Amino acid sequence: MSLRLSTVILPYRRWHEGGRAAWTRAEQLGFHTGYTYDHLSWRTFRDGPWFGAVPTLTAAASVTDRLRLGTLVTSPNFRHPVTLAKELISLDDISRGRVTLGIGAGGSGFDATALGQEPWTPRERADRLAEFVPLLDRLLSEDAVSYEGDFYSAHEARNIPGCVQRPRLPFAVAATGPRGMRLAARFGQAWVTTGDPKLYENGTPEQSIQAIRGQAERLDDICAEVGRDMTDLDRVLLTGFTPDRGGPLQSLNAFVDFAGRHVELGFTEIVIHWPIPDSQFAADQKVFEQIAMEAPAQLR
Question: How far apart, in whole angstroms, are the C-alpha atoms of residue 26 and residue 205?
C-alpha cells in the first residue's frame, strides 16, 4: 500500500479570509485527508480566533469533492455521543461519505474546564472514552439506541438514515496506552499516535523511533489478543510532536527520510500541519506544497 499523506488545517482563520482557500488548495495538492482539531481553544491560539470543527468541516465539504475530512481528534472533554452522532451523520451526508472521526481521551487543557467542571484525571478520561466509543459506534450504526452507562445515557436516540458510509463512518482512535489501543483494535479503522510526549523536549529522533516502534508492537499484541487482523488497521502518525519537530518540513529530502523511517514501522498515513507563520507549525509554504506533490511517489 502506498503511503497516504494528509494535512491538519487548524481553524484559526475566518472562512473568507484564508480558511476556504486552505481547504481547496489541500484538495488541489492531492492530500488524502484534511483534518482539523476539535477543541474549544488550543494552547498558544487561545487568545486569538478559533472556530468550531464540525461547522468548519461542513464548509470544507461544500467546496471540495475528493478530499476526505476529519477531526484529529474529538474527545469526551466537551462532547456527548448522542449529539455528536447527529452532527457526524449530517456531515457524512453533506460530504457524501468523506468523513473520518479521529477520537481520543483528550487532555487537561482548556477544553477540560471550559464547561465549568474540574479537569478529569487520566484514569477518568480513559474511563469515559471506554464508554464513549462503544456507544458512539452503536449510535452511528443503529436507527434507535437506548443506553444507561456510568457517564452517558441515550433514550431512544434516533439516527435515521444513518451514515452514508456503511455500517458507519470510520474511527481513527488515538492511543498510546493499552486501554486506548484495545478500543482502536475493537472499534477503529485506524490507530493514531503522536509519538511519546515525554521525548518532545529532550529526546532524540532515534529515541522517538524506538518509542513508536514499541507502541506499534504493543498494538500488534493487543490485536492478537482481541482477534483483530493487524493488517486491517491503518496506522496514522500525526507529526509535529516528536523531537524532530519541524525538521521534516525543511526540505523534500528531509521529509522523505523522516516518513520512510516510519513507513518501515508499518505506518500507512502521515499527517503534516498546514503552515502557520509565527507558530510552532511555521514552515515554508513552497516546500510544504512540494512535499505534498512529490513525497508520496517517493515513498511507494
Answer: 28
Chain mean position to CA 194: 10
Distance CA 191, CA 171 (A): 8
What's the sign of the alpha-carbon dihedral 104, 105, 108, 113? positive
For 89-116, write each residue's pLDDT tens digit.
999 999 999 999 999 999 988 899 999 9
Angle between helix axes 122-141 and 178-187 (nearest 10 degrees) is 10
CA 216, CA 229: separation in Å to the nearest integer?
A: 14
CB 36 within 8 A of CB 26: no
Place of cell 486552505: 22
pLDDT < 70 regions, the chain: 1
**Number of residues that this document lists for the chain:** 300
- Give the CA distances from residue 46 to residues 43, 49, 96, 109, 239, in Å, rounded to whole numbers and listed in that order: 6, 8, 33, 10, 21
| The three three-digit cell numbers of residue 247, written as one number | 525538521
Cell 433514550 appears where?
155
Calculate the alpha carbon distances from 258 to 17, 32, 249 in Å: 33, 19, 9
Cell 524532530 -> residue: 244
* Strand stretches in the chain, DSSP E: 4-8, 33-36, 68-74, 99-103, 144-148, 153-158, 171-174, 190-193, 234-238, 269-273
Q: Is 34 helix (H, G, I), strand (E, B) or coil?
A: strand
DSSP reduced 3-state for 51: coil
Q: Is 214 helix (H, G, I), strand (E, B) or coil?
A: helix
**Residue 109: per-residue pLDDT:** 87
Which residues does residue 145 pair with via DSSP β-bridges, in sequence order?
Answer: 157
**Residue 109: all three cell numbers together:** 487543557
